[in-house]
Design goal:
By secondary structure, the chain is mostly helical. The protein folds into two domains: 1-218, MFS general substrate transporter like domains (Growth Hormone, Chain: A), CATH 1.20.1250; 221-487, MFS general substrate transporter like domains (Growth Hormone, Chain: A, Up-down Bundle). Helix content is 80%, strand content 0%. The protein contains 25 helices and no strands. The radius of gyration is 23 Å and the shape is globular. The two termini are 31 Å apart. 45% of the residues are buried.
Length: 487
């Protein structure tokens, strides 16, 4: 304990300011992102936008992929013009674009505003990581980055809790105001408290810095072992992101969460009221947010277990567990089994995700660790893009409730006017229930039994299984014997 307290005293003020800014940035980002799939696709009479699943997947996939790709260039901006200046610019763009996104209603306008949100996030990401790196040393970096990872998850947990409760009380617009307000706090922190950490000022022209960054990336990507690993890990990130891209919609459309609400209400009505909705259900984002909650509680325990494993073995084991968890989460309409799936998923995430960057460092040649680490965002970016594809047109054709109902109505020869601005998704659902002589629960069960939308779990889990097999083959046939002993 004394040793830890001594390490804490070594952290300068800027370290804690950077972590505080990360907390509010994650609060804002996940406060929106956890409910974004719902906001984009739910019926317009709820205040949502009523876009198709394909439109949702395209927007979330491409914009988030761009967010993870842009730091390749935005990091050079920070080195050239200074961390503090670029932080302020990033937060101003970030905050204003959240407000703009909340006002936009057309697909093009929302898409454009979300691109600005991604730009703000991409400007911020490399600066905060670099600040933590530059305010720690060999004796404090392990604990320092552990604190940083914990802060990421705390912010990622708090944001969705606030956005879920606020949107059910005040409507969707409050989510964007909340996100903009959280970033506004960061503007004040950057202006008043943030001090530029010691760094070598980059006097190169901006485009020269960009060219150097690209040369470094291409140099690392000339290593076939690294390229093969990065390509394989695209599968992991594609499957992993279904938790945010698709599961909220699946829970919203198919899962009975009222049983969970009633169970909680049985031992604590106040607790049920705090985490439930006025309809006596649990909001999809609150269900998905359990992942972050489990990580906060169990990360240290899981890390202590997998630390004994070689990184590649930990990654394979983690992806195997994630594949099982994703199967449970999407394979049933029982809310309790969905929670079990999310818990299993989080265990696998805790085992595999932190080992991802560690493994890249292990396979890097001596003195090229940082160079190789710079490539770690590439599979994350591509994985986000492909996650959008599976969450968009694939989910729409296999599991989207509205699309399946439209097909069912046409097959039965029923006449219902198309969904439009004046005839919403909810109007369509109500009319279909009347014509089919059932209620909404009966309609959902009818579609569930007819089209088996839960079968999409097979596809998502299959992505994980293919990734596991590819990693196993990679470890045995691509890595050299000497390197295998090292990792």
């Amino acid at each position: 304990m004394t040793k830890i307290s001594t390490v804490f005293k070594k952290f300068p003020k800027t370290f804690w300011i950077a972590n505080t800014m990360e907390l509010f940035e994650r609060w804002a980002w996940y406060g929106l992102f956890a409910v974004l799939a719902l906001y984009l696709t739910q019926s317009t009479d709820t205040g949502a936008l009523g876009f198709t699943q394909t439109q949702k997947g395209n927007m979330m996939g491409t914009v988030t992929a761009l967010l993870y790709f842009l730091p390749l260039f935005t990091g050079a901006l920070a080195d050239r013009f200074g961390y503090k200046k670029m932080l302020i610019i990033a937060f101003v763009i970030y905050s204003l674009s959240y407000l703009l996104m909340g006002q936009a209603r057309s697909y093009t306008a929302v898409y454009g505003a979300f691109l600005l949100v991604a730009l703000g996030a991409a400007l911020f990401k490399p600066i905060v990581s670099a600040t933590v790196a530059k305010t720690t040393d060999e004796t404090t970096s392990s604990i320092g980055f552990g604190i940083f990872y914990m802060i990421v998850n705390i912010g990622g947990f708090i944001g969705p809790v606030f956005s879920s409760k606020l949107r059910h009380i005040y409507g969707w617009h409050i989510v964007f105001i909340m996100a903009a307000s959280a970033i506004a706090v960061n503007i004040l922190l950057a202006l008043i408290f943030y001090k530029e950490p010691g760094r070598e000022k980059n006097t190169d022209a901006f485009w020269d810095s960009i060219w150097k960054s690209l040369k470094h990336i291409f140099t690392a990507l000339s290593d076939i072992k690294l390229v093969a690993f990065l390509i394989i890990m695209i599968g992991f990130w594609t499957m992993f992101n279904q938790l945010f891209y698709t599961l909220p919609n699946f829970i919203d459309q198919w899962v009975d969460t009222s049983m969970i609400y009633q169970w909680i209400h049985g031992f604590s009505p106040d607790f049920a009221a705090a985490f439930g909705t006025e309809k006596g259900t649990i909001a999809p984002e609150m269900m998905v947010n359990l992942d972050a909650g489990f990580i906060i509680i169990f990360q240290i325990i899981i890390s202590s277990i997998v630390m004994r494993l070689k990184p590649v073995n930990a990654i394979i084991s983690g992806i195997m567990v994630v594949s099982v968890g994703i199967g449970f989460a999407f394979g049933t309409n029982n809310g309790f089994y969905v929670i079990l799936g999310i818990f299993i998923f989080s265990i696998g995430e805790m085992a595999s995700s932190p080992k991802f960057t560690e493994y890249i460092g292990r396979i890097a040649p001596k003195n090229k660790e940082a160079l190789y680490m710079g490539t770690s965002f590439l599979p994350v970016a591509v994985g986000n893009y492909l996650a959008g594809v599976f969450s968009g047109p694939v989910y729409q054709s296999m599991s989207d409730k509205i699309s399946l109902l439209e097909h069912f109505v046409a097959k039965r020869g029923l006449q219902i006017q198309p969904i439009s601005e004046k005839f919403t998704q909810n109007d369509y659902l109500k009319r279909a229930a009347v014509l089919l002589h059932t209620d909404q629960h009966g309609l959902t069960q009818m579609l569930w039994n007819t089209y088996h939308p839960y079968r999409i779990w097979m596809l998502f889990s299959a992505i994980g299984i293919v990734t596991i097999i590819a990693l196993f083959l990679y470890n045995h046939f691509i890595l050299g014997k000497v390197q295998k002993k090292a990792v």
